[in-house]
Specification:
The structure is a single chain. The protein is of the alpha+beta class. It has a single domain (2-287), classed as Cupin (Jelly Rolls). Helices cover 26% and strands 25% of the residues. The protein has seven helices and 14 strands. The strands form three sheets. A seven-stranded mixed sheet has the order 2-3-12-9-14-7-6, with no helix packed on it. β2, α1 and β3 (28-30) form a beta-alpha-beta unit.
């Protein structure tokens, strides 16, 4: 893979951000965007435990889904307080996915400012908290609604791989899904993954690598593939913004209500033939990239 560093700034003026990153759909890290928010000083494990510690949350492990695994099905449940205690004691490959903590503690909305000076279209009803223990993994995927994302890391470090949507064939995208067939787990540890022998087109994939530290805000343009590894136990918040173009919005609607429905039905009715057809199509598309 050809991985470049992500451009990094302390702050960016809105016009510069839109011209150099938003419009060309290029990722960037803004290190000080969130540091003026009350959340930067206020949000920590103890605070969250005190306000939402009794709420039951869905947990997800590091096992990569296969042809027969239902998408986004929880692997376990605990109270948020129990989960915080678990990940605070050491490595724990468990993460919380799309937890809308703001539904349970709406006062948290007052702790940050929507960066409308950078872009419009924020879905202000759905800021989302992402939490993971040291060693937990979010496998390579792109967000199904095709929104732009501002992802702010509040605690812990996290390694992120990023690829433009157009790299999908080199990344062995599963048809009718937002996932890659390739397992990037712990790729940085030199354990032989990803497997270039099995996935040769991956060698030609062009993307970015960055380590997010507390306070960093990563702009992920719509459709960007991302793989995340929690170096430390930590949490981050994502703010989503719809694309400005009609075609971008329609792409997200199709993914949510068309593509996902077709895939769900065929996984339930003819899982093996559906998976075999997908595999053939994946490798035919990848061969064209060689």
């Amino acid at each position: 893979m050809n991985l470049r560093p992500v451009d990094t700034y302390n702050l960016l003026e809105g016009e510069v951000f839109r011209k150099n990153y938003y419009e060309p759909k290029k990722p960037v890290v803004i290190k000080d965007l969130a540091k003026s928010w009350p959340a930067y000083q206020k949000w920590n494990w103890g605070y969250f435990k005190s306000i939402v510690g009794e709420h039951r949350v869905a947990l997800y492990n590091n096992v990569k889904s296969d042809a027969y695994t239902p998408i986004n099905t929880a692997d376990d449940y605990k109270t948020f307080g129990e989960y915080i205690d678990m990940i605070s004691t050491g490595p724990a490959g468990w993460r919380i996915f799309l937890f809308n903590i703001f539904d349970h503690a709406p006062e948290l909305i007052q702790d940050f400012t929507w960066p409308d000076n950078l872009m419009k279209g924020f879905v202000k009803k759905y800021p989302m908290l992402f939490v993971g223990g040291e060693g937990s993994i979010t496998h390579l995927h792109f967000d199904i609604d095709m929104s732009h994302i501002l992802h702010t890391q509040f605690a812990g470090k996290k390694r992120v791989l990023l690829f433009p949507y157009e790299e999908k064939d080199r990344l062995y995208r599963k048809p009718f899904e937002v996932l890659s067939l390739v397992d990037f787990s712990n790729y940085s540890e030199g354990n032989g993954k990803p497997d270039y022998n099995a996935f040769p087109a991956l060698k030609k994939a062009n993307g970015y690598e960055v380590i997010l530290e507390p306070g960093d805000t990563l702009f992920m343009p719509a459709g960007y593939w991302h793989h995340m590894e929690y170096i430390d136990s930590g949490f981050a918040m994502s703010l989503r913004a719809l694309q400005s173009s009609v075609s971008g919005k329609l792409h997200g609607v199709w993914n949510l209500f068309g593509m996902r429905t077709i895939d769900t039905i065929l996984k339930k009715t003819v899982p093996k033939p559906w998976y075999e057809w997908k595999k053939k199509k994946i490798f035919r598309s990848a061969e064209k990239m060689l």
